[in-house]
Input
Amino acid sequence: MSTETEPLLRVRGLTKHFPVREGFRAKGAVRAVDGVDFDVRPGETLGLVGESGCGKTTTGRMLVRLLEPTAGTIEFAGRDITHARRAQLRPLRQDLQIIFQDPYASLNPRHTVGRIVAMPLQVNGINPPGGIKKRVQELLELVGLNPEHYNRYPHEFSGGQRQRIGIARALALRPKLIVADEPVSALDVSIQAQVINLLRDLQRDLDLAFVFIAHDLAVVRHFCHRVAVMYLGTIVEIGDRDDIYTRPQHPYTRALLSAIPDVTTLGPAGRIRLTGDVPTPLNPPSGCRFRTRCWKAQERCATEEPALVTRDGGNQATACHFPESGPIGVVTSEPVEVP
Amino acid sequence: MGRSDSVPSGEPDRPEVPEQRSGEGPYLQVTDLRVRFETEDGVVKAVDGVSFAVERGRTLGIVGESGSGKSVTSLAILGLHNPKRAAISGEISVGGRQLVGMAEEEVRRLRGRDMAMIFQDPLSALHPYYTVGKQIAEAYRVHHPRAGKREARTRAVDMLGRVGIPQPAKRFDQYPHEFSGGMRQRAMIAMALVNDPDLLIADEPTTALDVTVQAQILDLLSDLQEEFRSAIILITHDLGVVSQVADDVLVMYGGRAVERGSVEQVLRRPQHPYTWGLLSSVPSLHGDADADLVPIKGNPPSLINLPSGCAFHPRCRYAGRNGDRSRTEVPELRAAGEAGHLVACHLPAEERTRLYQQDIAQVGVAR
Output
């Protein structure tokens, strides 16, 4: 990925607060996403990872404008689309598509596969050369489904095949960027590998850019060029894949990676034990949001929110006052149990 | 567990008794278990002749994809299948007592006291209308009819503390919705352990949880096992979880056991092509991130219409190497070289070892 190319997607200060009411009075807001910045260049895959409630899905939904941002800007191919209206969004939808997590809920059970995949073409009034049916069959073939199954209904397909239908639908308009929200997490391992390989091939062959939202860091490692780690609505670390997985600087990234039970190590591995749960986004901790679970937290962490900054001129930016350095597996001070 | 003898057995019986490791013998012994359901579309052979044993203080990981029969096996052990719907045969011996054919009332007395279960989704397993503490105390009083309310409460508060819930006395009076996902799973573990069961079955206990919380719960289960010396069955699709906590592993496919052995044997020196397939399709944090994963082709089989012979043969890369055998003959679970390692595959042992070295040992996490 050359750094000179203009980003396809530029996100700055993106924020989503969901108001919480008690009766008629506003009680506060769930700060689901609280000021995230990132770029995605053409043909690049960015992984958004984090635990539930970190705001990764909300971010994805704002990118395709299924949710209205509270603040911040989203620029796509140089155009500000943050508050674009429906009519203005229509041409944009062709370039920007989404794949959903649940292959059961995201397909209309009363429509044939042909109709589901043709829908984006029809809605946008596109008549491809050779007709819609031919294009749909090409798409089905592209995602590894039998084009003869054009007239079948979703219930006749397995979970993995349904996810392929969802992918074919997303590809129908030849988009430049696809937001994929946990596209493989509902699938069995053997099927999951098939779909990951398919997405990788499509990404390479069609030069697609992806925002790939997932909680499974091993899956993200096999798919993404760059990775952004989210915690409680903010990005705590972002960088190239190899940097994030081999030299993570944020204590949370280290803890997250060490918590993954990896089949290559037998027996309880030397995990960093994080205590407690993620705090509520209704009232996130002051300063650094991770400080309540961090073994390195000092007074400064409670008063001053760390900015996402790059160190030593690299591509890796970390929001931490006391970042780690060196390879993963080495922590500068022992994690302590925080009550 | 109602009927025990009414199932017509298609194949010849091949009860295969697991060997014992220590003098006292396994606490749970399952022999040739078969569970079938009659449906409008045909007979679902959910479990088709599975045998295994678990000793106290040890953890058996049962691995398989959806529809492999792993959850049906665990429900059969706990006697939770509707006897009108499920036909169960074979033997399930828990602490020397034969469960198949036992009166329902008797099974109920064992369940919760001698054997308990942790479910995947704590929110649907806990009753939203009662406080968490009341539900745990209730589980205690059912099996200790002479215990008073106060004693049950003390016991429940003690258990909540043991599973790492802060301020257990205060938490006792809260409702499930006031607990976070990890705390609910802890509460359910407290409920399962309140009667000191000797056998604990955990069905995907951490699948709904985030990784950092999953790590806490797996640590907790290991610590509690050391303390209570219970036998644990851990059912999961996640080979990573199995590699962390299991002592032994059983791999299921299409309702049958295809491989069984110690965790080192099954994950380090796997012998069955299905286990190879699982290992090479799992993305890992190590190794070459740019290399393609090697998926298993096709889809898991339908249990109503299982492929003939070896159920895995339509998806197996090596099925053609035995002529027609893999299509016509169901492979038996046989010794695979090392003591305690069993595999159900028609490939000759030398050829399996050669294929593993040649095709599998270099890819994915198998490396």
